[in-house]
Design brief:
This protein has 176 residues and is mainly alpha-helical. It has a domain of 123 residues. It is elongated. The relative contact order is 0.15.
Amino acid sequence: MKKRFILILFLASMLIAFAWDKISLIKESAHFILDPTFGFLIRWNNLIGLLIIVLFINIIITLIHKYSTDQSALKELREKSKDIQKQMKEAQKNQDHEKVAQLSKESFSQAGEQFKQSFSSMGYTALPLILFFRWFGDFFKDLSDPKIFIGFGWFGTYLIFSIIFSTIIRKMLKVQ
């Protein structure tokens, strides 16, 4: 049941992404809600407003990830992956190609398991992120795509600060 719900969320996200300009109700609804709230922050100050929004988005995404995944299982998988990487380095140093191939297989298996563990949180966050990204595109286009942070537009600024905020928040909340 949970997998079906997450799949529906992913499909809804894709539908919104592709139908944004074709179905005016989607776009107009998002603008109706986001323009007076988050749009106010950006109009007040492009950089500070966007940073507040990025921080807000990252806090929500991190909390969803923390509480929709099995953190102990993810921690265990990450520790196993680190161990496999160490073994691979040692096998490469010893030029043990068979061992490297076997460990590489194991590493891919671990990565797949980590993806499965994180999939549900991605499903829950896909829809709001698509809405925000499409809205950001429209909103900043209306502002003539200003350069916000050291020559970057909204997307570059979002990406840089999202990585920074996400790293800090994950460490503070001990999220795997």
